[in-house]
Specification:
The structure holds 2 protein chains of 2 kinds. Chain A is α+β, with helices and mostly antiparallel strands. Helix content of chain B is 33%, strand content 34%. The chains are: A alpha+beta, B alpha/beta.
Amino acid sequence: MHPFLSDNRKLFRYMLAWLTASLPAAAALHWSGRAGWPQGLLFALPLCLVLGFSVLSAYYVCRALPYAQRRLARVVGLFGAASLVSAGAWLLLALAWNGIWPLLDAGQPLVRLDDDAQGVLFIAAACLYLLSLLAHDVLIAFDNARDATERAAAMRALAREAELQMLRSQVDPHFLFNSLNSICALIDLAPADARAMTIDLAEFFRRTLALSARTEITLAEEVALCEHYLAIEKRRFGAKLAVELQIEAEARPCLLPPMCLQPLIENALKHGIRHLDAGGMVSVRAAVRDGWLHLTVANPIDELAVSAGPGGVGLKNLRERLGVFYDTRARIRWWREAASFHIELTLPGLESREP
Amino acid sequence: MSHTLRALIVDDESLARHLIREYLQRHTDIDLVGECDSGLQAVRDIDTLEPDLIFLDIQMPKLTGLEVLALTGRRSGVIFTTAYDAYALQAFDLHAVDYLLKPFSQERFDAALARARAMLGRSQPALDALIAASAPWLERVLIRDREQVHVILVSSIDYIEAQDDYIAIHAEGKCYLKTQSLADIEARLDPKGFVRVHRSYLINLARLQTIERHGKDGHAARLAGGHKVPISRTGYERLRTII
């Protein structure tokens, strides 16, 4: 359906424009001595409305010829023929409207329509129809382009959503099986610890699953998840792992996408602490400064380690996720300082509306 | 009973070692001679303790279980343990090498032990194939220096020089001596990375800076770090075909 026909307001404005156009038409008839003011108006008003309606049909003509099937000859042929047929039909209507008056009450025709006037009317109607065709063509081209970009954007969003879903549900199998193995050992060694570790593991997975359904969580929730994760890893690493969490009170209600902090801590253990014979301390800090949430994770690393930093998939994923969520308003950077590795996330410090 | 078996546990997690220790308790004929929390320690202990059985974790930092075997040349009495390593598991299945998936039960442990016992002392050719498949070229070189064991990254080596019965490995400004022939180590290094430029010299292409004229019609290689290594005529031809 034509966009004007489905929108009453647009249609009203459009017809109003045509009504106003009937004024200069009547004036032209008057000054050329072909009709008086009232007769001219009576002639021009309905015919302008009809012309206004009929040129809208150009929309369907344009649609009938999709861009993919266009050849110059076909376009010229179709557009030309449509303009001529429409102008001819309209001229016949004008002649009929003009000729009906003498039959009714034996009066005069409204307008003196000589050959010149008929020619002008026909050419004007044909040109208007052609103009309408061109205008509609451009309109449709714009619409198509917009639709295409919208579709592409929607597809990208869907693909991203699917990817996020997959990333979130992706649990490191190494972590899971090693934790179960540790529990196996603890059952004999320290049954109470085995129980505590089972509960931490369950809690960690339960929270991971619950969070995966949400697009944003508070930092407090993410930290709780990390605490369970760290409790498990502390049992696995033993005395090698020390943890220092410094989460400022005003940072806790800040919102961020789920699983932003946990992968950073996981990296710190996997690429840092694990490679050190003496182990070390992972420091996690969260602070709000000037409306920005700063999250930093620091850990000691093996000075002789070849890999200069985490060029890994995990960090690439995190960067992409932050890009989707914050566009360009999030920053992630990392640096090496002698024997320690630092990573910092800077995010807009948006707070949860809930108390 | 014939004699007690000497066993070594290699795993970087203490709880994982504890579990194996616990499972070993019912096998009174097995004497636990040592526990290692790193691959490096394992390389040392396999050499000095010469255990009959090794419980070897695959996923360890710095030196993996497979690298420990590659470096020590140990090919018998190995029972692998792993939590999850898709790549390694595929290789194991391909070469029909037994392994324990963590967490494992006492029964599964006993079965693996019985199997290893039956194979005791016999070299397992499957292990050779497995190690060859896991790392076609050396990534690390092991240097034993009395009590110390150094691990050198192959990528950090500038050049290797043949000296009588041993080779001198020049890396990161230091020189390490190793009893091995130059041809032997050349065969284990990626030929795209290392070129024998002289009867007594093997250079790391990544460290090569310039080839200079030397003497009348000889050449020499200038390496990053300032070393200058002579190039023989055949060595020059070999270099030219590669570069």
